[in-house]
Amino acid sequence: MENGQEALIRSLIKLLAGDSELELEGVTLTAKELTLSLSDLSGLPAVTGFVPGPEPMAGLVDIGYTPSVRTYPGKIREVILGSTRGDGGSRVRSVAIGGASTPPFHLFEGTDPHSPVVAGSVFDIVPPLPGPVKESFGDALEDPCAWAKAWVDRYGADLIDLDLISTDPYLKDTPVKRAVSLVEDLLQAVDVPLIIGGSGNPEKDAKLLPKIAEVCSGERILLSSATMNMWEPVAKAAQEFNHVVLAWSPIDINQAKELNRKLMGYLPPDQIIMDPTSAALGYGLEYSYSVMERIRYAGLMGDRELQCPMASGTANSWAAREAWKRDPGLGPREYRGPLWETTGALAFLLAGIDLFIMLHPGGARTIEDIVGWLADGINPPTFPDFIGVGH
Amino acid sequence: MTKKKLGPMNLYPLLPRTNCGECLPKTCMGFAVQLCERGLTLGNCPPLKAPEFQANHDKLEALLAPPVKEIVIGKGEKEIKVGGQLVMHRHELRYFNKTAIFTTVDDTMIADDITSLVQETSSFSHPYIGHTLKLDGITIRSRTGNAENFRKTVEMVAGLTDLPLILWSSDPGVMSAGLGVAGDRRPLIYAADESNWQEMSELASSTGCPLAVHADGNVGTIRSLVSAISDRGVKNLLIDPGCGFGEALPKSLDNMTMIRTSAISGEDSLLGYPLIGSPVTLWDQGNSLPGEAIRWMESCLASMMTIRYADLVMIRDPSMWSTLPLVVLINNLYNDPRKPVSVEPGLRVFGTPDPVTSPVLITSNFALTYYTVLSDIEKLNCYLLVADTEGLSVDSAVAGRKFNAQKVADIISSSGISKKVTHRTLIIPGLAARLKGDIEDAINWDVMVGPRDSAGIPAYLREKWDGVDHKPGWSYR
After folding, report:
1. Smallest Cβ distance to B268: which of A39, A68, A293?
2. pLDDT for the residue B433
3. Which chain A residues have a beta carbon less than 8 Å from that of B317?
4. Cβ contact (<8 Å) for A64 and B223?
5. Per-residue pLDDT tens over the stretch A57-105
6. Distances (CA, A) of B23 to B31, B34, B338, B380
7. Looking at the DSSP assignment, which residues form a beta bridge with residue A69?
8. Which terminus in chain B has less CB density within 10 A, N or C?
């Protein structure tokens, strides 16, 4: 096919992929077989071509291989969490995620500027936790700041996620003032970027999260979370105090898109991270996996409302009874539970997740190791010291 | 150009077009749609079997051939199919033929160890939403390189199990000895490489067994091997591009993705075969990790290979803690995404409940939640209300306000439960505890907060339900 024709066909495909109306008048296409495939993955034709090589090897003719490489018109936005002293915050480093221009770990198509990161999960009061998690943190669980420090100092977490679950009016109804002072303590206790979450109660979160945004002014935290029920107060606070919003949607690509559109009315798009919900392995993981894949490919194919990096509450994996049940027939809990969380994380890693929020250090270290190997391959494993703890 | 998308109009002209009504859609156009979506196969059309349709049948078969060939390993009841994939992503249609899991014995193991590994593999079973998850086969590996040792080991394993087998040796003489005792069971010959491909092709050709092609990390070599071997008439192939962690991981993962992308998007028929992931080779790599850490990494690697298109994985042993996450993951990813996530809201009756003494429970209509609860209470006499939470699980539905007092009131009135029981006590999930007061106000029933996990329901009822005065005599079936 001649270059001119190829360019024409490419622009036709682009037009069609954008749902634009198209009229062909006085155009003669001489390409022998012109196929316009409009599945969401094939906005542009794959580029293939095999290089023949007549080199014989042990009676074999080496016929070579050229990978089928695609180009992707869209790019995932880069989002920065945490602000250092130089930038008006107090974090020792900031963390950049996103920036991908190819599907996750399609290394033959291109490498991404940033590797996925892991946040260690802590709570303001100790929720029912599985044995292996309790054993990994011991007494530190009693104090959220000590819990967070253990994550950073012992287990090398990139970020800390503090969920203020006790603020729920139906749980302890901890006053906003007290919750805010815990966040101030946490800022002193650890120097990594922070994710601060409410209880999920929309009325209380609407009061709590703006106050958190205010006391964390300058720190560029991730506010968790905005939902279709309650997004405006979070968006306003993030805009005023320059934070990032975690946009939560219930395994539904259309809701995810709609919420992003609302938030983008208030916020620059690089202040949004999406959480499309991470269902537990065995309890709907595949629905999360496919929604994540569809979101990522839609972003790469040019949907600007879905070009935000994605976060996963991977700790949800522990909701699966196979992860924590005392059942000798299922094998030792100290390995089984953390591996359950890790396996979920691996599925989401390959579906495009950029930020993991995890409960067990063994799983967190495994993801850090694997991400490191995929980036440069040379690091020795760090996970073995942290699995098989507790029972 | 990307592969031309197959539509019903490509198939319809080749069908009898009589609308004879012998298939379920009753019309030829409906049948063509079902063929495209792989809901039905050509065998579902009786008139196509007539001699005058032979040519059309062959054309249809060629049009419907998946870009990744479907291969059969084993014979008889336990035979498995691998491959047959049409799409890169499950959301585009679905994945077919679940990734098969094979455990591995070798000819240096003592008989007792082989026996117990084979038995554990055969008896591996885990109940999961209405069916039983199992393992698929046994790999027998030659480590000594001695043909007689291999023959004896294969003979022993073949006598222990009727599961499909993989015979693993790069030495054609050793392979021949193994095939001598198990060749009639259609094992997978593993594997042809650059040094042995001519002899291995001969063995595959003479026994009719499928053949794996192996070239560590080099896709060009794999294409060359597939081309040469298929020229000799051996067409039932699988591909193993190698598998490792640490420094080897990027290439291991990338080769799988590249090969499947070329097969499906690039129409490279030389790569259109099922893929093998072999994380069992981690145990060979002389690394200094403790045993449980290798097992952990083997499981992680098997999961990653599975997500990136492996149609068959080989692991060392069926240790429950490391194998169960993999088995469940495979089951999840190969689930048909066209099936609904939710079940019908409404009233479900278990056993023979009594209007005075039987409890009324409530849960969400998310399919996985519902089936989990169902498996925990199906032996009880009780009523279960399934609320319309729009397919969300209880905890997500509580957070997202899809499970609230109004929804509970709706299902109480639409189900007619008030006419089925004389008491007015509802047991709500522990994960919805915070809604107790709201629900009581909305329905004017007593609300008891049940366990957070439905596995605790029988014990909960034993302790809490018997003790309440208006519910004596509640019993198990």
Report:
1. A68
2. 92
3. none
4. yes
5. 557 889 999 999 999 999 999 999 999 999 999 999 999 999 999 999 9
6. 7, 10, 21, 41
7. A47
8. C
Residue A57: per-residue pLDDT = 52
Q: What parts of chain B have a pLDDT lower than 70? A: 1-4, 130, 287, 340, 466-477
What are the boundaries of each domain within chain B? 8-64, 70-333, 346-465
Residue A225's closest chain B neighbor by CA?
A: B399
Q: For the domain B70-333, what is the CATH code?
A: 3.20.20.20
Enumerate the residues of chain A whose CB falls inside 8 A of the CB of residue B172.
Answer: none
A216 token code pair: 């964390």
Q: For an interface test with B, give the residue of A205, A334, A339, A360 to mutate (most B CBs within 10 A).
A: A339
- The dotted CATH code for B346-465 is 3.40.50.11600
In whole angstroms, what is the distance from residue A389 CA to residue A338 CA? 10
pLDDT of res. B130: 63
Residues of chain B with pLDDT > 90, as a percent, come to: 77
The 10 Å CB-count burial string (b at 16+, else e) for B199-236 is ebbebbeebebbbbbbbbebbbbbbbbbebbbeeebeb
List domains and CATH numbers for chain A.
78-386 (3.20.20.20)
Distance, in Å, from the CA atom of B115 to the CA atom of B160, rounded to the nearest integer, reads: 7
Separation between Cα atoms, residue B315 and residue A259, nearest integer Å: 43
Cross-chain CB nearest to B224 (options A61, A281, A378): A61
The string of pLDDT tens digits covering residues B336-355 is 887 767 888 999 999 899 88
Question: Does residue B111 belong to the interface with chain A, where contact is any CB pair within 8 Å?
Answer: no
Q: Residue A388: closest CA among chain B residues belongs to which residue?
A: B292
Distance from CA of B217 to the nearest CA of A (A): 12
Chain-chain contact of B265 with A60 (C-beta, under 8 angstroms): no
Query: Per CATH, the architecture of B8-64 is what?
Result: Orthogonal Bundle (1.10)
pLDDT at B465: 85
